[in-house]
């Protein structure tokens, strides 16, 4: 039986392991991320490509199938905003937390940007767009 405490401890251990791994391979380093986005160092790009290839094989082995359907109206602008923010700040939403834990204080600006961005997205969606929130829970 899984209790809330057991799930919390598991999540903390998993998060620490992820942070340790990401930091030690250099993916928490702003300079490394900048080199990836400016195509000066393909190491991280190749790591992402390998991860996608592995998950494609795993999905094929376990029989995961996606039924074709309409792309959610928020996917394209959301992806553009996410990628732009990642390129400017040097991190997706998890990386600034790892950077902050490593003592990189400018990550606070990125974390504040994520919080403000989520708030603005919810506000704009409620006021103007009224998009189906799907499973993301905007």
TrEMBL record:
Entry's transmembrane regions: 7-25, 45-64, 76-98, 104-124
Keywords assigned: Membrane, Transmembrane, Transmembrane helix
InterPro entries assigned: Sulf_transp_TsuA/YedE
Pfam family, one: Sulf_transp
Domain of life: Bacteria
Name of the protein in its database record: Sulphur transport domain-containing protein
Record lineage: Bacteria, Bacillati, Actinomycetota, Actinomycetes, Pseudonocardiales
